[in-house]
Amino acid sequence: MKEAVFVKRNSERWRSYEESQAEDPDELTSRFIALTDDLSYARTFYPGSPVLKYLNGLTSHLHRKLYSNRREDHGRIKTFWMYELPLISFQARYNLLYAFLFFTAAFFIGSISAANDETFVRLILGDGYVNQTLENIKNGDPLAIYKSEGSADMFLSITVNNIRVSFMAFSAGLLFSAGTLYVITQNGIMLGAFQYFFYERGLLLQSVLKIWIHGTLEISAIIIAGAAGLLIGNSLLFPGTYSRLESFKGGAKKGLKLAIGLVPVFIAAGFLESFVTRLTLPTWGSVSIIGVSAAFIIWYFVIYPQRLYGSKNRIDIQNHTRLN
């Protein structure tokens, strides 16, 4: 459809929205749904057009009116976990994909580098860790390092460190996404070198069954934190129809919420690493924990957001969350 035809077909309705201020919540919602459909169409077919800016302003005005009229939600925490965070995850789905791909590429770089340079693992993991692990391998307990510290102290230090890494990946997005990609790459290379170290000694399966008890949640959360950082960086690089400042504000707010939402995941990962990884579990026990952890991450951050956004009530859900 040509732009002129699109404007002629809808201009009367848009004008009525401006001139006749509806107060009924149902009518406001109906108008908001119609406008978001128009805005989506204009973004697709008329990028950079004045009609796009006009619709963006009209939709924003209507959204503010909806938000000011709605009753404050008493279940704020429930709303955040059930709707707000999953919808932000959906909006960040491409950032999540890019973070995952960069991490995977870095993992293979770390593995290949370790395979071709025997000093690489020491460079990445440090002489102290490598020497201690080699000694543990000689003693018949390759992963004894997870038993070298008290559970409570280990839980606190690991959890704090993981949260620190998460917020580093998030805040590094201020460097136009480059900082976040560096943090993701650094962690991917480290994991690749680490896993190859055990593979080279015929201990890959044993290490996977042990390390990924906590690593499934920990590594997944670092990748998702990377997606939060990319939200900030890409909001600066690609502001779209918004001013760069407004785009940055929106990206920073969503990215921060996504990063904060990962704190319970890191706490769970810290608990598993401190209290469970050190145990000698049967294979089925390790596989069960790893499987449940992976299923949770995939369901909550990928599948559920897709279903939530695709539901017939998605606009109503968005109206009842603070995504903007």
From TrEMBL:
UniProt xrefs under InterPro entries = SpoIIM-like
Q: Which organism is it from?
A: Dyadobacter psychrotolerans
What start and end residues bound the annotated signal peptide?
none
Name of this protein:
Stage II sporulation protein M
Keyword list, A-Z: Membrane, Transmembrane, Transmembrane helix
Transmembrane regions listed in the UniProt entry: 96-115, 219-238, 258-277, 283-304
A Pfam family found in this protein is SpoIIM
This protein's source sits in the domain of life called Bacteria
Q: Which PANTHER family match?
A: SLR1478 PROTEIN
